[in-house]
Amino acid sequence: xxxxxxxxxxxxxxxxxxxxxxxxxxxxxxxxxxxxxxxxxxxxxxxxxxxxxxxxxxxxxxxxxxxxxxxxxxxxxxxxxxxxxxxxxxxxxxxxxxxxxxxxxxxxxxxxxxxxxxxxxxxxxxxxxxxxx
Length: 133
Prior knowledge:
Elements: H1 2-6, H2 19-32, H3 36-39, H4 80-116, H5 120-127
């Protein structure tokens, strides 16, 4: 990952004359980061961006209801089967979280690379720092 952080743009987008060399450079860097399918301007059907996974809910004891005039019985404890199912869900969550974190880091690296590969005028548009007078 260190080499990705140190990657420097060799083609700077200054105008339309630089476009083809510049987009090829962006495409190569995005492919190295496994992101090209998300940013390819010519793609007809880009996949949706990954989203942060939600942590599964741990099983909890179930509160039983007593009959009329009776005290509520003790909660039903969590079963071994419920705990095993939760462990499986948690393992899957950790895999998805790791994948999402890698995607997010790579997306930030690509954003930084793109902004660093163009003149300030274009970089301001990409980063949303333009002012409208």
